[in-house]
Design goal:
The chain is mainly alpha-helical. It is 41% helix and 6% strand. The protein has a two-stranded antiparallel ribbon with strand order 1-2. Helix 1 packs antiparallel against helix 2, helix 1 runs parallel beside helix 3 and helix 2 runs antiparallel to helix 3.
C-alpha cells in the first residue's frame, strides 16, 4: 500500500522543525514542546473562550431577568394557618414571613413571594391573637 504523503515510500526523515502528524493527518507538537491539552484550560471551552454557566452565571445565580420565588414564603404561610391547630406554628409563620420579606427585599428583584410573606405575617398575627384570646377565655371560665 502506498503512502499518500510520500508516494515513493521513502523513509520519512524529520528535518528541522517540521510538524509531526498522527494517523489522521493532524499536526501534533513534539512531546514536551508546550502542547495544550485537547480540552483546553479549566473554565474555557475548546475555542479558548470563557465558559458560561449552564443554568445560570458562575456561583449559581440565575440569569439576569429570571426570578424565583423565595423558599421561605410559602412555608411561612402554611405555618401561619396551621397555627389554628397548634398555636406555636403561627409564631413560626410570623418569623419565617419576616425572614422571607428581608431576603426578598435584599435580592434586588431576583426573588418573588413578598405577598405570601406579608400574608403569612398578617395571618400569623391574627391567629396568635385568636389563640391568646381563646386561652384567656378558657382560663377565666374554669
Amino acid at each position: 500500500m502506498s503512502n499518500p504523503i510520500d508516494p515513493q515510500n521513502n523513509p520519512q526523515q524529520n528535518y528541522g522543525n517540521q510538524p509531526n502528524y498522527d494517523a489522521n493527518g493532524q499536526s501534533q507538537a513534539p512531546y514536551g514542546q508546550g502542547s495544550q491539552a485537547p480540552y483546553g484550560q479549566p473554565g474555557q471551552d475548546v475555542y479558548g473562550q470563557q465558559a458560561q454557566g449552564g443554568f445560570g452565571q458562575p456561583g449559581g445565580a440565575p440569569y439576569q431577568g429570571m426570578t424565583m420565588e423565595n423558599k421561605k414564603a410559602l412555608p411561612a404561610l402554611i405555618c401561619s394557618f396551621l397555627g389554628l391547630l397548634c398555636g406555636i406554628l403561627s409564631i413560626v409563620g410570623i418569623v419565617l414571613g419576616v425572614i422571607a420579606q428581608k431576603e426578598i427585599r435584599e435580592s434586588n428583584g431576583m426573588q418573588t413571594g413578598a405577598e405570601k410573606a406579608k400574608l403569612a405575617i398578617i395571618v400569623g398575627a391574627v391567629v396568635t391573637i385568636l389563640n391568646l384570646g381563646i386561652g384567656i377565655w378558657v382560663a377565666t371560665q374554669g
